[in-house]
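User: Predict structure, ligand FE2/S2 (inorganic) cluster.
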Amino acid sequence: MVGLIDLVQTLTTPHPLDRYLELVRPTLTARDMRAEITHVDRSVPESVTLTLRPTRQWRGHAAGQYVQIGVVIDGVRHRRCYSPIDVAGRRDRQIQLTVKAHPNGLVSRYLHRTAAPGMVVDLTPAAGVFRLPDTRPDRVVLIGGGSGITPVLSMMRTLADEGYRGDLTFLYYAQAPELVPHRVQLTALAERFENFRVELRYPGHSARGSERLGRGAGEPSARLEGAARYFDYDELAHVAPWFADAQTFMCGPPGLMNAVRKVYEAEQLADRLHSEEFTLSVPPVDAGEAFGTVSFSGSGISTANDGAVLLEQAEAAGLTPEFGCRMGICFSCTAVRRTGCTRNVRTGETDSDPDQPIQLCVSAPVGDVDIDI
Ligand SMILES: Cc1cc2nc3c(=O)[nH]c(=O)nc-3n(C[C@H](O)[C@H](O)[C@H](O)COP(=O)(O)OP(=O)(O)OC[C@H]3O[C@@H](n4cnc5c(N)ncnc54)[C@H](O)[C@@H]3O)c2cc1C
Ligand code: FES
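Assistant: Predicted complex:
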């Protein structure tokens, strides 16, 4: 089959075979994976949950991993990462994604506004190291905030599907009770499993600060009942007194993740904490590196180096390089650095070998560089 596809691919060059097949039916593909939206749920404000039926190439996901969705907006194809919320290995081979509409976000607002059954999107295989280990831990703490509920919800659902018998606490932060996605499913899991504890927090919300779902719903929830609290040691010790023996998985906004990290570092438990970030917290631009010229030689455009990562400098110069995660994990933005030195803003490492592929979203130029885009 692969040999036949290769042969037909050669005959259809310069266009890939899938460009012809999509004229027949968008989900009829030889190589590219796509997915058809089969259901859309907008019941939670500012968020949309899509049910997708992937084409035959889909191989499933591990709980916590992400996929990339590609959509064409105004003639330009854009890709973004989203974490399926389902049980890993869902038997009907469908996946669900919950997308929070960012106020200035291009793809999330587009999906929130226009997604409808029948719409076809590009889909990449699931990837990412943020996932439940194959040997399930004896105890698990899941911490989420905002749109970061998605990978940890997949983990909880997967463990529930397997009949997990260990202690599990799910601690989730939202701005208000009505902004909690999948409340019905969270409640059902908390009711069904006496070893699952589901705690919701609304720091900054004046009327109600905390809530416990399921069997323990009548019991005191937060350490200070009714108070609107941010994450701290006492909160963690209250909802998961055994947390030092657990593996903890978290995904949420930077403020929450930093607070959790501080507690685990202070307790010397950093190796038991696993995290996924949706956005990159970039250190401030180093003024000492913001000099010289950035040349995008593939387009004949040059700009004064302002020290920002190359993806941002390219966009500021009017270019539209492809990107997905904007944080160095998906490799969509990879381009060749012809000459010059760049610093990886995540690791701090610099590199000046010529003709090397680099990720534009996490690479800041140190002086003059030439990028082939
Ligand atoms: C592994 C992973 C999993 C994820 N899973 C989920 C999930 O399950 N659910 C979910 O809702 N989100 C998830 N995300 C986030 C998601 O991928 C998108 O980042 C999010 O939907 C915003 O995309 P957007 O196109 O709407 O916003 P964008 O248009 O990309 O804008 C987002 C922000 O990026 C900055 N930005 C964008 N364009 C530019 C530019 N030209 N110049 C400078 N700054 C710019 C701006 O600050 C803007 O507010 C995940 C991200 C990762 C990395
Ligand atoms: S956009 Fe994902 S690695 Fe750069």
